[in-house]
Structures are given as C-alpha cells and as structure tokens.
Amino acid sequence: MSLFGTGAMGRVVRSGVGRRRAQTLVIAVATMMAVASAVVAGALMVAAAAPFDDAFKKQQGAHITAQFDPAKANAAQLAETGEPAGVTASSGPYPSTAFRPVDQAGFPMPTLTLVGRSGPDGDVDRVELKSGRWAQKPGEIVLSASIEGPSVAIGATLEASDTADAPTLSVVGFAVSAGRSADAWATPAQVDALAALGNPATSQMLYRFDTAGTKKQILAHRAELAASVESGALLGTQSWLDTKRAADQGAAATVPFVMAFGVLGIVMSVIIVSSVISGAVGTSLRRIGILKAIGFTPREVVRAYVAQALIPAGAGIAVGVVLGNLLAVPLLAESESVYGAVSLSVAWWVDVAVPAAALLVVGLAALIPALRAGRLHTVEAIAVGRAPRTGRGQWAHRVLGRLPLPRPVTYGLATPFTHPVRALAMLLAVAFGTIAATFAVGLTSSLGAVGASQDPESRAAVTVATVKLNNTAPPPPPVGGAAASPSPVVSSPAGTSKPKVADPAKVRAAVKSEAGLESYYGKLRTEVAVAGVSGSVEAGLYEGDSRSGSYEMLSGHWITGKGQVVVPSRFLERTSTKVGDTVRMTYEQESADLRIVGESFDTSGNELEVHADMANFPAAEPSTFLVEVKSDVSADEFAQKLAAVVRPLGGDATTVPPAEQKSVILVMDAMAVLLTLMLVSVAGLGVLNSVVLDTRERVHDLGVCKAIGMSPRQTVSLVLASVSAIGVIGGLLGVPVGYMLHGIVMPVMGRAVGTGMPSSVLDVYGPVELLLLGLGGVVLAVLGAMLPAGWAARARTATALRTE
Amino acid sequence: MNQVIELEGVAKRHDTAGAPALGPLTLSVAKGEALAVTGPSGSGKSTLLNLIAGLDKPTAGVVMVAGRRIDQLSEHALAKFRREHIGIAFQFFNLLDDLTVTDNIQLPAQLTGTSRRAAAARAGELMEMLGIHKHARAYPGRLSGGERQRVGVARALINRPELLLADEPTGALDSASGHDVRDLLMDLHRGGQTIVLVTHDLALAEACASRTIHLVDGHLALDTYARAVR
C-alpha cells in the first residue's frame, strides 16, 4: 500500500508523479546531489574537529611544550616558570633528548623525542597508556601509539643508535599524548644515560594557561617564559594550536571546498525544487480546479501537491545519503592516515540530521505553492487556459520584435518575460551551475599549481644519485602516519642494510666534466633535530646554487648561503618564531644556529621540511645532484652518458620522472570534478524543467506557429532563444561569483593546513578561461533546453492545435 | 481548369483496428472554387482539412496541393509549403495573445524571410481591407470575436496563398459577427480566392461556397455545385 493509500488521494498523487516525469526527475536529482554534498561536508567537519579536542581536553594537554637548556636553567628555576599569573598548571622539568633508534630488522627509525617521566600522569599532559605498561626501569621504553607496527610491538627491542655499543631498549607499552609532547617515554635515568652518550640534553616543561586560544596569546606567553629565565635558556617551544592543526589537517583542507559545494548544492536545490513545485502547480491549475469540482477539499489538494514533491525528494534523499557515505570514505581514509583515529564511517547523526533537514526544506518549498493551489477558487482554476492571457510579457514581445533578428529568435527572446519568476529560477540555476564550474576550474588549477610547487626537484632535467635508483633502502616508517615523499631525491642511507654508496666527490666530478652541463646543485634530504620541536624534522641541505630547486616563497627569500634556513609556515607557528629569528638545528652530532630568512609554501602535511645550506654541517654530503643541461642537449642522452660513468661508482643518473601528485590533491580533484558535474547536471535539469513547463504551456501557440508555417528548425531556434539570454546573464553573474568564491576558499584551505597561498596558486584564471566559462552559462542553458526544443519541433501540429 | 487540390484514394486511420476516420476519398478542387465541407461531428471534416493543410499525413492515397504532392514531404518542407501556399483561419482564431494584431498578421510573412517593411505594408493593406486597421496596436484579448476572426483571416492571407482553409470560421462567433465573417469570405471568393470551408452551418455554406460536399462516416455522401456566389 502506498504512503497515500490506494484511494482517490493515492491515485491523484501517483498520476501526478508519473505524468510529470521531467519534474519528478529534477526534484529527485537535485535533492540527491544536495544531500550527498551535505553528508560529505558534515562527515569531514566531524572528522576534522572532534577527536583532537576531546582527547586534548581529557588529557589536560599542554598549551605550550617548552625545551630549556639545562646548563642555563636548573630544575628550581624551571619550576618557578609555572608560577606567574596566567599559568593554570605546569609539569616538569623532565629530562629530554632526541635519538634515532634502530628497529629489530635493522632499519633506522625516525628521530624520536624521548622524555623521562616516572609515570603517565601529571597536572598537565596526562598521557594515555593504550597498551602495555609504563617504563619502570632503565632499558624500558614506551612509544607513541602511532609508531606501533609489525616490527615495533610490545616486547620488541630497539637499539638506541646504529653504533655498535648502543644500549638496548625494550618496548613495554604504547601511549598517546594528544598534545604530542614526545614520541617516546622512559625513566629519567634512562634519558640521562642516553644524553651522556652524546645525544642533546634538554629540559621539558609543560604549561596550561587561562587564555591560549589564539596565536597571539601563545606568543605572549612564550615571551613571558623566555623573560623568566636567563637569556638563551629557552631553546624552543611547541604550540598546541599547531598540534591541533596537524591533527585536523587531513580532513580540514577539504572541508572549505566541500562546504562551498555543499552550500551551492543546497541553495540550488531549494531554488530548483521550489521552482519545480510551483511550476507544477502553475501548469496544473485546471487539474486542481477539476479535483476541487469533484469534491477534493483544499487540504487534500495541499496534501496531494506536497506529496508529489516529497515522493521523488524522498527517493533522492535516500540515494543521496548512500552516495554521500560512499564519497566520504576516500576523504575520511585520507584523514585517518593523518590522524590515525578517524572512523571510516560517517557519524550516525550526520546521516540522520542531513536527510531530516533536506525533507524539511523540500516540504517547505512545496508547501507554499501547494497552499496557493488549495486556496484557488474552483471556477477560476478551471477557466485558466481557456481565456486569452493578458499583460505579462507583451511589452517584451513588442520591444524585442523590433530587433533585426529572425522572427522566431525575437519571439523566443521575449518568452521569459511571460513568466518572470520561472525565468528567475532558471537564471539562478544557470548562475549557480556557472559558479560551480568556475570554482571547480579554479580549484583544480590551484591544486595543480600546489602539486607542481611541492616537487621542485622535478624541474631538474637530470637527477644524479650516489646510489642506484632502484636500490634504495625502504623509507623509514612515517611519524604520525604522514605519507612518505614520492620525490626521486634519495634519503640519507643508514642502518645495517646500507646499499653501496658512491663517493659524492667522484659523482660531482663526473657531473662537472660531462659535456652539455648548464648548471647543477647538490642536495641531501635528511632529518635534523630542531630545538623546541619534538621528533625529527625533514631537512633539505643544499650544495651550490639551488635557486632552480627553490620552493615558492610566501615571505623572505630562498637561502643564499651559510647560516640561513628557509622554513614552512607551520614551522614558524609551531616554534612561535618569525622570519629573522634564529633556531638551533642539529644534524647527526653537528649543531648550528641558523637565521630564518624565508617562509616557504609547503603543504606537505605533518612534516616540517626546512631548507638550509649544506655548508652549515661539514659532515653532510649530497646524495643527489640536480642537473640542468644546455638547451641544445638532450636530457636523456646526457643522463645515459652520465649513468655510464657513475654506475660503476655505485651511483646512477636518470631524467626526472613526472611529479606524482599527492593523493589528497587527487582526491580533491576527483571530488571537485564529481561535485561540479552533479551541480551542472542539476542546473541543466533545472533549465530543462523550466523549458518543459514553458513548452507544455505554449504547446498550443507553438502548434499555431507551425500551422502558419514555422519549420521545425525555426521552432527549435525559438525555444533555444528563449533560454539563451538567460544563459548569457547567468554566465555574467556566475563567473565573477565563482571567481570570488575561489578567492575566498583557497586561502581558507591553506590556513586549514597551516600555510598561506602564493600568487601562483591564487591567480589561476586567464581572460580566455573566464570568457569560456561565461559562455559555459549559455551552453548549460542551451543543453538544458535542447530536449524540450526537440519535443516542440517534433510535436504534431494537429495534436498541438487541439491542446488547451 | 487548374486544380488546386487533387486527392486520390486518400484514407486516414487513427488506429489499425477501427474504421478509417476518412475515405478512401477522391476529390479535386479547382482554382477559384469555394468548397464547403459539411457533415455531422466525427464525419471526417477536420481530418480532411488537416490532410489538405499538410498538418497530418494520410494512411493511404495521394494528396496534391498547388501542383505539389505533399503527403510525402518532410515536416520542414511541409512548413515551408504551408507558409507559401496555404492560409488557415481557425474556429477559435488561434491568435498569439502575446503579440499585437499587426505582429500576429505579419508573423507568417516574417517566417518566409519577407522584409519587415514589406510585411508591414502588406499587413496594413489587409487590415485596411478587412476593417481592423484601428486595432493595429491592440492585443487580441481586447477584440471582439468577429474582429479576432478578421485578424485570423488577415494572417492567413498575408503571404497571398493559393488556398485559404477555413475551419468552422463562424463556430465561435455570435450571429452578427458570423455575418461579418460570411461577407468577408464571400468577398474573398469573388476576388478569385480558392477556399475550402469546413462548417456545420449550412446557411454559411450556401452563401459562400460554389460547391458543397457532405461527408458521412468519412465518406463522400453528396457533392453539389451551387449557383454563382452573388
């Protein structure tokens, strides 16, 4: 039995739904698209926000994690730093060091920040033990749960370094610090013992403040901390805001653009559903009159017309929820890989709230015209369609009829003025479709620019490595689930399974002596420790003029020599530093104080990749040489010749393969294309619906025109002309709004991953592109009208003439 | 005498099971002739008119109009043929409410590509001739039934068609307006216009037509020549 029974009401509703297939389809698809977009947006927002905040609150996470030089500030002095007004709680000092253990398989792990704590609890940073127990004696270690894996489990042993006499540490537990105060914990005595072996020793203090919601507040507290101890004693700090951003960023970057599409979809759905329903009522006046004449009450008429909207909308909503859940999975998977604690399913309440809201919107959109239908006087309704129309649109026919264009065209151009509200709905559908297309084109261009800017090594014509390129050691497991870089640049080889490494000096000599060389620079991609930053930091160390391999700069300049470092925006935020400040960086056993000379555009997720001159660390040697060849020299031939020389040494040479785009960019590209296609399709369906209504209303007039000699082609041109002006205006409105939307959303997406956006990413529209997008509005309108235009042209004249 | 219409064994079935709506029918109409088609409802009058106008296609037989076989033409060719050779006046006028009287009348001329100036001149001439020139800028909704039918006839004549088809031209009019339209048709016939007039009104048929055919169940039941139209 149907929802509305098998009686008269059910039959009326079913026949209404079945008779108006185009409108039914438009309502179903419009609601489906809106619901799918809203489910994806809602799921991502939940994934982006909730887990970190909950965990941080529960653990009383540290707003500032500070590292002090124990030689300049003793325990008593550090304890006093937790006393000033504004500090609500503090913990420490805890001895801290950075070390690079080697796992059971002999592979070196990333550099880890190890903190000596006698237990997981405290006033600040109540570390949550996920499995095992806390370290109780030297030789035991608790690792961050993000490091857990097949070769790193409870009971596994780690060597504290790759030296022969390194102490062995037994893994006894895994724990999570929401504020990421450390990567590993051991007893204070164990930390002191490791520091005594030459690892850097610092003192860690953890603070909570009464106000710490903004970067400005964090900077003010940091300044107070620095002032409360001897100058130079505060080596570095880590802000909880940056930790939160790092935790959220996997999903956070996608939220603004999904939200933009979601809002577009919802607004467009409301407009189209309202226009479809009011159109259905408008063209059913006689039917409504007849229903009332045979005994339907006004309330029953209202119910019948609301039901005619709710049935297809309900189907669209059901499909939209399923589609939204399917679309959300790849994006949630991306978030999960970053944060490690995100469920791959959409929150249940999102799946309930979104359809409920959609039903409410559709119901309201349908109710208003349905109430109008219910209020119509019976005789008035029946008479509609029989009496001549007067008034609306006649002036437009009079004016436009004078244009020096074929008569069917001028007749069509004036048609929208007969139904201004319907024409407005069509205009909005075209405009929103154009906005979506403009936004999506800008977004994909920007994402392409982001992808290109993140792989500067790929600009080099030839890559020369000191190891065989197919013989590199597997990369170390990423910290926090961050993806490994796809760059062809070789990581610093280490560990027990070292491949044969060519002497960099010999490789350099081979590069310099090869005919056809234009320029080159050397690079070592490695890990360094930065005072104040827990865990290791990715670093690119450069030899020679590396400008051709530079990142896009947001401020300052690229490194020009020794003593300089270029850092990404997140580094500045995490360490509460700015361009011009100095940081201490340690590569293996060598430390250097480097001045930050530039802020790089870097979207590499959790990693903080810094760039410095290799001369700062005498022990560092290039693992890769990036080469430019002269314009008349083939890069392939150059690489082949060079490979023949360096392969016997243990090295290799190749032309750089095309840059691989990051998976999150590919996912966003795919989402943008998919959501745009959905929005443009819905816009086209909106136009289709309006033109179908118009054509149905004017079928008699079209029959008259055909009877007096209008050819099918002229009929098509009449119908298409009726939407072309709307297409032009929709394009003119849609392109600038889509342009502005792109200009708003891209910086928001950048902020979500902790970076600004350079002009190469923001200024992606060219004049030709904008013109074509504007014409897209016309194409959209014409495509939407093509089907009913064909129907009008094919309609049998004699039948059309009999139609009232 | 030149034949404007020649039908040879023309039949039309609306469905395969039932009897044909028309024919088989063989009929010819000479140039300058005014043929009235009469008969009860469902006798096939409108079907015959639609076949002659090229608005419908026969199931069998040959339809020649103005020397051209039209039953095999494409929709595009039929539209072109209609606007050049046939004018139609409808029972319910079928004027476009959005357009002024002048624009309604000019429309078929504009569809053929006639210049705006030439179309306006011809429309003015017809409005003058039919006595509706004072309504040139009015919209059809403001006119009486008789005036609207005059506009319909003017529109039908704008391209100087060889054949004027009139489908119950007085069916929707009061008697005074009906007389006006009858006089108009008589004048046109006297001027040499070939007319096919479908009507229930025997008096109108007698007054306007030089020849009357009577259809019953789709078949020709009577074919009579009248005295000359006065």
Automatic annotation (TrEMBL), chain A:
<dbReference type="InterPro" id="IPR050250">
    <property type="entry name" value="Macrolide_Exporter_MacB"/>
</dbReference>
<keyword id="KW-1133">Transmembrane helix</keyword>
<feature type="transmembrane region" description="Helical">
    <location>
        <begin position="302"/>
        <end position="326"/>
    </location>
</feature>
<keyword id="KW-0472">Membrane</keyword>
<feature type="domain" description="ABC3 transporter permease C-terminal">
    <location>
        <begin position="675"/>
        <end position="789"/>
    </location>
</feature>
<feature type="transmembrane region" description="Helical">
    <location>
        <begin position="24"/>
        <end position="50"/>
    </location>
</feature>
<dbReference type="Pfam" id="PF02687">
    <property type="entry name" value="FtsX"/>
</dbReference>
<feature type="transmembrane region" description="Helical">
    <location>
        <begin position="716"/>
        <end position="741"/>
    </location>
</feature>
<dbReference type="InterPro" id="IPR003838">
    <property type="entry name" value="ABC3_permease_C"/>
</dbReference>
<feature type="transmembrane region" description="Helical">
    <location>
        <begin position="257"/>
        <end position="281"/>
    </location>
</feature>
<keyword id="KW-1003">Cell membrane</keyword>
<comment type="similarity">
    <text>Belongs to the ABC-4 integral membrane protein family.</text>
</comment>
<feature type="domain" description="ABC3 transporter permease C-terminal">
    <location>
        <begin position="260"/>
        <end position="376"/>
    </location>
</feature>
<dbReference type="GO" id="GO:0022857">
    <property type="term" value="F:transmembrane transporter activity"/>
</dbReference>
<feature type="transmembrane region" description="Helical">
    <location>
        <begin position="664"/>
        <end position="688"/>
    </location>
</feature>
<feature type="transmembrane region" description="Helical">
    <location>
        <begin position="346"/>
        <end position="368"/>
    </location>
</feature>
<protein>
    <submittedName>
        <fullName>Efflux ABC transporter, permease</fullName>
    </submittedName>
</protein>
<feature type="compositionally biased region" description="Low complexity">
    <location>
        <begin position="480"/>
        <end position="495"/>
    </location>
</feature>
<keyword id="KW-0812">Transmembrane</keyword>
<feature type="transmembrane region" description="Helical">
    <location>
        <begin position="423"/>
        <end position="443"/>
    </location>
</feature>
<feature type="transmembrane region" description="Helical">
    <location>
        <begin position="770"/>
        <end position="793"/>
    </location>
</feature>
<feature type="region of interest" description="Disordered">
    <location>
        <begin position="472"/>
        <end position="501"/>
    </location>
</feature>
Automatic annotation (TrEMBL), chain B:
<dbReference type="InterPro" id="IPR017911">
    <property type="entry name" value="MacB-like_ATP-bd"/>
</dbReference>
<dbReference type="GO" id="GO:0005886">
    <property type="term" value="C:plasma membrane"/>
</dbReference>
<keyword id="KW-0813">Transport</keyword>
<dbReference type="InterPro" id="IPR003439">
    <property type="entry name" value="ABC_transporter-like_ATP-bd"/>
</dbReference>
<dbReference type="Pfam" id="PF00005">
    <property type="entry name" value="ABC_tran"/>
</dbReference>
<dbReference type="GO" id="GO:0022857">
    <property type="term" value="F:transmembrane transporter activity"/>
</dbReference>
<feature type="domain" description="ABC transporter">
    <location>
        <begin position="5"/>
        <end position="230"/>
    </location>
</feature>
<keyword id="KW-0547">Nucleotide-binding</keyword>
<dbReference type="GO" id="GO:0016887">
    <property type="term" value="F:ATP hydrolysis activity"/>
</dbReference>
<dbReference type="InterPro" id="IPR015854">
    <property type="entry name" value="ABC_transpr_LolD-like"/>
</dbReference>
<dbReference type="InterPro" id="IPR017871">
    <property type="entry name" value="ABC_transporter-like_CS"/>
</dbReference>
<dbReference type="InterPro" id="IPR003593">
    <property type="entry name" value="AAA+_ATPase"/>
</dbReference>
<dbReference type="GO" id="GO:0005524">
    <property type="term" value="F:ATP binding"/>
</dbReference>
<keyword id="KW-0067">ATP-binding</keyword>
<dbReference type="InterPro" id="IPR027417">
    <property type="entry name" value="P-loop_NTPase"/>
</dbReference>
<protein>
    <submittedName>
        <fullName>ABC transporter ATP-binding protein</fullName>
    </submittedName>
</protein>
<dbReference type="GO" id="GO:0098796">
    <property type="term" value="C:membrane protein complex"/>
</dbReference>
